[in-house]
């Protein structure tokens, strides 16, 4: 229950951060795409710095969640970050959310519930044994290189989608490295074992890379193009890491059918929610419907 609670808190923080970062990145000129100057531009915007503050809160909550639960349980919960953010924004701004948004919320939450019930993830170890990290890091690097290369060869929403998937892969890698690093604390080594583990510093590097890729994805296209790739990619790649590196278990066989249905519901819900002005970071709230006599 602790891991689920902190996973939900992580999702809430990440969802709000994505909206703030999208609003800031959309003001950056195209000439700064895939350049470090993009980060310099964003550092001068308070709304982006607020988003980074929420990213730090999310990182702390995620560390606690991964230290107390399987990665295949924690990471998929993050798909609720966008619907939760829209519901909070509607409540705070006193905006009546349109029916499509509620359909999107229902699709994402029911898809998550169906997916978790069907896959029933669990088991596994807290650490990665032996040299299993070597092939995982090589394959991840090749996958990232292919996605970034494809993104550089295109523009607009296709580039945003590819970079969003690349960011998702980097975030999933960050979570796997974080879980392996945090296990050093539970194994009796204490803070010394944590700060001497290479996983901690690799996690920091992967996290910075993920943040850079996400900012470029948000700058390249719409949130509708980025969010489904980011949300589903992070969940699916994290599950892959959980199964291959930590030995976690998932149901297979005929259970794959409801799992695929769950993925479809989540993808459809994310696309619907990402079309909302609140999701795009628009400060102008949609007006309430007026009754015409």
Report what the structure shows.
There is one protein chain. The chain is mainly α and 293 residues long. It is 73% helix and 0% strand. The chain contains 12 helices and no strands. The protein has helices at residues 2-25, 37-43, 46-68, 71-74, 81-92, 99-119, 133-152, 156-186, 190-195, 198-220, 223-246, 256-274. The radius of gyration is 19 Å and the shape is globular. The relative contact order is 0.17.
Task: Give keywords.
mainly alpha; disordered C terminus; 0% strand
> Quick one: how many beta strands?
0
Shape: globular
Helix content percent band = over 70%
Assembly form of the protein: single chain
Helix/strand-derived category reads mainly alpha
Number of helices: 12
Strand content: under 5%
Query: Main beta sheet: strand number and arrangement?
Result: none
Q: What is the mean predicted local confidence, pLDDT?
A: 82
What sequence of helices (H) and strands (E) makes up the elements? HHHHHHHHHHHH
Q: Radius of gyration, Cα only, in angstroms?
A: 19 Å
Given as residue ranges, the uncertain stretches (5+ residues, pLDDT < 50) are 283-293
- For the termini, the CA-CA separation is 52 Å
Summarize the structure.
This protein has helices at 2-25, 37-43, 46-68, 71-74, 81-92, 99-119, 133-152, 156-186, 190-195, 198-220, 223-246, 256-274.
